[in-house]
């Protein structure tokens, strides 16, 4: 106890709780070790001994089933006999699987010895059972029955006896592990109770010692704090020289707190007066700001009305642009149709010119024929003159042919002249029509450009409409914000007035503190300076 007085409170608590924690750790460690050993024993029982017994019991059950099925085979025939043979085969496969699980689990000397005996008996039993099945399969019922009763049953009994020995050994090990686990549990409980009792006894002793070393100095600190709580700041503290631990440091801190409170209260008195004056000025400024805010809100309302009118005008402009765009599109379509018609005329004129040139070629052929006919008629006249009277009629015909050839040549010349003039006129007309086609193409292009321009104007009008709508929304939001600001300004004025009232109340509250006389004069001087 005397040594604890010279220790820090933190060191006392660490020392006391450290001992208790150490004992509790000891209790926990002992409990953990006991639980670990118990868990191991229980795990051995559950996952080793019990599993071995369960597997061996399963094998014994299958052997019993095989015996029953073997007896049934002596009284059944045909498909039923084959079904029983299949069931015996499945049972033997199940026994084999169980042995595959059991064999790796047996590791001790006695267990391996007993398992070896079981395996030997099993091998002999499997051999005689196979012999029995062969006899049944061959139809030797009497021999199979005698073999079953005299040989197979004897080996099955020996096989079952070895398995019972193995099961008894595993049950003995399981009972021994259970007794060991119970003994360890009792030992762990006793050790835990003893250590817990020691920890509780030591904790009570250390708690009382720690309480006495702390509560007495704390009572002195509480008395000082109660004086401060009553507003009595006139107490001059001499400190606590009993110890230099945390409680002594607390009392020194309370002394500094008392001195700081004296300074703070004196400053608060001055500040409360200054706040009252400042809040009055803030209230006046807030009222002026409220008036200007209301004027600004009125101006924003007028601006919003103007923006609505502008939006209506832009909307009308957009509608007109859409109408003009439709008209321009229709004009462009008409011009395009005219261009197609002119193109058709150009094509037709070209075909006419081609036909005229073809006629001109035919006329040249006719002229050639007329020329040849004229020559032939001249030759015929010459020959008729040579013939005398006999060729006179032929000469008349030749003359008529020459006259006809001459007329044909004249007619061909006139037709050629007309065709040449027509071809010239058709060529001129083709050039004019081609010029008209190019002009129509330019008209179509200009109409398309005008339609694109009107479309751009329409889109621009839509964008202007959207922009003006956004500006109008922004102005309305600004109007709402301005109105909210006006409300906030009014609230600010009310808050400033409330602050002034609270400052007065604060001054009254601070006046309830009793200050040392040496601190009153400077505080009163600062109050007079601020006022």
From TrEMBL:
<feature type="domain" description="HAMP">
    <location>
        <begin position="212"/>
        <end position="266"/>
    </location>
</feature>
<dbReference type="InterPro" id="IPR051310">
    <property type="entry name" value="MCP_chemotaxis"/>
</dbReference>
<feature type="domain" description="Methyl-accepting transducer">
    <location>
        <begin position="271"/>
        <end position="500"/>
    </location>
</feature>
<keyword id="KW-0488">Methylation</keyword>
<dbReference type="GO" id="GO:0005886">
    <property type="term" value="C:plasma membrane"/>
</dbReference>
<keyword id="KW-0175">Coiled coil</keyword>
<keyword id="KW-0807">Transducer</keyword>
<dbReference type="InterPro" id="IPR003660">
    <property type="entry name" value="HAMP_dom"/>
</dbReference>
<dbReference type="GO" id="GO:0006935">
    <property type="term" value="P:chemotaxis"/>
</dbReference>
<comment type="similarity">
    <text>Belongs to the methyl-accepting chemotaxis (MCP) protein family.</text>
</comment>
<feature type="transmembrane region" description="Helical">
    <location>
        <begin position="12"/>
        <end position="35"/>
    </location>
</feature>
<dbReference type="Pfam" id="PF12729">
    <property type="entry name" value="4HB_MCP_1"/>
</dbReference>
<keyword id="KW-0812">Transmembrane</keyword>
<protein>
    <recommendedName>
        <fullName>Methyl-accepting chemotaxis protein II</fullName>
    </recommendedName>
</protein>
<dbReference type="InterPro" id="IPR004090">
    <property type="entry name" value="Chemotax_Me-accpt_rcpt"/>
</dbReference>
<dbReference type="GO" id="GO:0004888">
    <property type="term" value="F:transmembrane signaling receptor activity"/>
</dbReference>
<feature type="coiled-coil region">
    <location>
        <begin position="290"/>
        <end position="317"/>
    </location>
</feature>
<dbReference type="Pfam" id="PF00015">
    <property type="entry name" value="MCPsignal"/>
</dbReference>
<keyword id="KW-0472">Membrane</keyword>
<dbReference type="InterPro" id="IPR047347">
    <property type="entry name" value="YvaQ-like_sensor"/>
</dbReference>
<keyword id="KW-1133">Transmembrane helix</keyword>
<dbReference type="GO" id="GO:0007165">
    <property type="term" value="P:signal transduction"/>
</dbReference>
<dbReference type="InterPro" id="IPR004089">
    <property type="entry name" value="MCPsignal_dom"/>
</dbReference>
<dbReference type="Pfam" id="PF00672">
    <property type="entry name" value="HAMP"/>
</dbReference>
<dbReference type="InterPro" id="IPR024478">
    <property type="entry name" value="HlyB_4HB_MCP"/>
</dbReference>
